[in-house]
Design a protein that fits this description.
This protein has 338 residues and is an alpha+beta fold. It is 38% helix and 24% strand. The protein contains 13 helices and twelve strands. Helix 1 runs parallel beside helix 2 and helix 11 crosses helix 12.
Length: 338
């Protein structure tokens, strides 16, 4: 048995407390004895020689949070306190966020005898949560301003969408559950119900341009790009939808989305791209580091060429100045960008 596997819970707690990330405390009501662990002193930013006192601990809690911890007299009377998260204002002016957990100790008759608790420093976690919330708020604001929406679902046609898109179109989830084409103007519903199932059944990226109804009034054409995301086995595990106003740019897509877009590039597209560059198959093989036979199999849409070879050939052509883009349906257009 390894040394790690033989660590006791007490030793594990000691290691955590040594980092100043957690501390324990206890109070025996009858004797008045209170104990603090070294980790609690570190978390509270207090010298270890200071006499433990629940009133002192509660006094370090931010005034706005202090009501979450009962006063000393109330604690001794009720014999326990609820789990809570509080801000600790240290004497050096720094602030920590701590999760407080405690359990009351009672006699067989139910009389409060004491309480034992633990505090865990979750400042960094709290900051991360707030940072993520701020980033999500920023993205939502940008989406509302730029009218660009991106979300991923495992099932198509989409019936969930994102909350920002629902607010933008004024549609409800219940309405979309009955008719996934509801964001579009009614006169287009028949067209999209007829065309979209065949497009996503092909398992390739595709684009459509429905006219959307906006909650604020009016209508406008938007470009919907649906991209299949595959797992390691090559199976479609979800679809990502990118919605932008017609004529607007959505910016560079994430790598997984870009790979999904490029899966529809066929041998004829590779040949056309070479023609735009005035390259031979040997030139593409040399530039990509792939063998001549691999390039030939890719251009003939033959089997045996791994997906990573396809990705490398497409990336080489892109770096050489070829642009690949989706047009109506799942057709791919080429352009010389450099």
């Amino acid at each position: 048995m390894t040394a790690i596997s033989t660590l006791t819970s007490r030793e594990s707690l000691r290691i955590i407390e040594a980092q100043g990330l957690a501390g324990s405390w206890s109070w025996h009501f009858a004797s008045g004895e209170q104990r603090w662990s070294g980790g609690l002193y570190a978390l509270l930013g207090l010298p270890r020689g200071l006499r433990p006192d629940y009133g002192l601990l509660r006094g370090l809690v931010h005034p706005d949070d202090r009501g979450r911890l009962p006063g000393a007299a109330d604690l001794a009377r009720i014999g326990g306190l609820d789990d809570s998260t509080v801000r600790i204002l240290r004497r050096d002016g720094t602030m920590r966020v701590a999760a407080s957990r405690a359990e009351g100790i009672r006699s067989p008759e139910g009389r409060p005898l004491g309480v034992a608790g633990v505090m865990v420093d979750i400042t960094d976690t709290d900051r991360l949560v707030r940072a993520r919330a701020a980033e999500q708020h920023r993205r939502q604001a940008l989406a509302r301003q730029a009218r660009i929406f991106t979300f991923t679902e495992a099932v198509v046609p989409f019936v969930e969408y994102g909350s920002d898109f629902l607010a933008f179109t004024g549609r409800s989830r219940e309405e979309l559950a009955e008719n996934w084409a509801a964001p579009a103007v009614p006169e287009e519903w028949g067209r999209w119900h007829a065309e979209v199932p065949d497009l996503y059944a092909a398992g390739r990226a595709y684009t459509i341009s429905p006219t959307l109804r906006m909650a604020e009034g009016g209508t406008a054409p938007f470009r919907f790009t649906m991209v299949p995301i595959r797992d390691e086995a090559g199976m479609v595990c979800s679809w990502t939808m990118i919605i932008v106003p017609v004529g607007a740019a959505a910016g560079p897509p994430p790598d997984a989305v870009r790979r999904g877009l490029e899966e529809g590039i066929e041998g004829r597209h590779l040949r056309a791209a070479r023609a735009l560059l005035d390259w031979s198959m040997a030139d593409l093989a040399r530039a990509s580091g792939l063998s001549f036979s691999t390039i030939r199999r890719l251009e003939e849409d033959g089997g045996g060429a791994p997906a990573r070879s396809h990705q490398r050939a497409v990336e080489t052509l892109r770096q050489a100045g070829i642009g690949f883009s989706l047009v109506a349906g799942n057709a791919i257009a080429l352009s010389r960008t450099g």
